[in-house]
Amino acid sequence: VGVNVLNVTDLAPDTSDHISALQVRVDRARVATAAAGLDALLVSPGPDLRYLTGYDAIPLERLTLLVLPVAGPLTLIAPHLEQAAALASPVGALDVRVRDWHETQDPYALVTEVVGSARTVAVDDHMWAVKALRIVDALPHANVRAAGSVLGRLRAIKDAAEIESLARAGAAIDSVHAQVAGLLRPGRTEREVGRDISELILAAGHVRVDFVIVGSGPNGASPHHELSDRVLLPNEPVVVDIGGTMPDGYCSDSTRTYALGDVGDEYRGYYATLLASQAAGVAAGQVGIACADVDAITRNVMIAGGVGEYFIHRTGHGIGLETHEDPYIVESNAAIMEVGMAYSVEPGFYLSGRFGARIEDIVVLTDDGPKSVNHTPHELVVVDL
Ligand code: ZN
Ligand code: ZN
Ligand code: ZN
User: How far apart are the C-alpha atoms of 347 and 270, rounded to whole Å?
Assistant: First the structure.
């Protein structure tokens, strides 16, 4: 199967200025906010704030809040002790007014003052409930909604710098998978292997390990099984799904399935179908197709191969500043694919009590079609005993 890969070296050098890229995002967010019938977005620390302003604020109980109106200046309400950190971030170079508040002040009074007469506002999906509820109280005449449908759609379309970031994250996690076979030996536990993998994820350039799944034998039948003290046995498959966050905030996520010795004809037969399904899913990505259709194309190969009933989850999820974000590649998602979307294609089969398998790549939809940021081979990686 020819794999259409996106190499870090294929990408043009990043000449675009980070600040101007952020300015473009803010401008797009204003347009989308107005189009959604909203007067302002209220964004607390998390991936949405980092996306819009480059500010990777610590999520604390004290209120930090970006007020992004459809017109007029942006305001960042921030605790006085966080002001220096905020101004040291790209916020300092963007056209953002910082309104700081001191320990004994009520920051929600500032929300009332800054948001003023807005009738309809939206808060980011990750906002702590306690903050969202206090904002509702601070704006008694406003209709407060969730901003996910506005910001999710913007963040789903990656710009050139983001695609480069995802390619770097893909190369980093590929370098880990290239070393996993050497860690798998009968007699080691999943947890021992997982600890080694975590170290490799950090050594590969990630700043955070987001998850390490080592699903040996029957544990592979649980898609989000993480680690246990189960000992790896000869002649069984091991599902390894790993990911981390890079210094710029972008995430990696890749699954390969390994075979410790001979896993048998039945398993290899199912795996051949899975290989074809994953390749079909990657190739299915094109501008104008619905996310649901990519799921159907991937799933139909599994159904035709007799393993459709064992493919118990959606085909994939978007990825960027979060491991799971828009667009979701699922039967219920009629959203149309556009250039710049980045998402996983990760079919699997799971036979409860017996075994599982999954193959997962991150795919970017480019002008030249779908390109994987992951390069390691998709075939079952057989570890000779
Ligand atoms: Zn997941
Ligand atoms: Zn995934
Ligand atoms: Zn994964």
Answer: 12
Angle at 5 between CA 381 and CA 13, to 5 degrees: 130
Ligand 3 ion: Cβ-proximal residues, 5 Å cutoff: 241, 253, 255, 360
Ligand sitting nearest the alpha carbon of 315 = 2
CA-closest candidate to residue 1, choices 295, 268, 283: 283
Distances (CA, A) of 200 to 19, 23, 165, 180, 210: 32, 36, 19, 9, 13
Could you read off the pLDDT of 264-319 as tens digits, one per residue? Answer: 999 999 999 999 999 999 999 999 999 999 999 999 999 999 999 999 999 999 99
- Residue 224 Cα to ligand 1 middle (Å): 6
Tens digit of each residue's pLDDT (9 = 90 or more) over 73-101: 999 999 999 999 999 999 999 989 999 99
- 14's tokens: 């990043």
Is pLDDT above 50 for 249? yes
Which residues, chain by chain, have CB under 5 Å from ion ligand 2? 253, 344
pLDDT at 11 (0 to 100):
45
- Please report the pLDDT score of residue 117 as a whole number: 87
Q: How far is the CA of 375 from the centre of ligand 1 (A)?
A: 20
Q: Counting ligands in written order, which one lies closest to the CA of residue 255?
A: 3
Going by DSSP bridges, is the β-strand pair 254-260/236-245 parallel, antiparallel, or unpaired?
antiparallel
CA of 359 to the centre of ligand 3 (A): 9
Q: Hey, what amino acid is at 374?
A: N
Q: Is the pLDDT of residue 8 over 60?
A: no
Ligand with smallest separation from the Cα of 345: 2
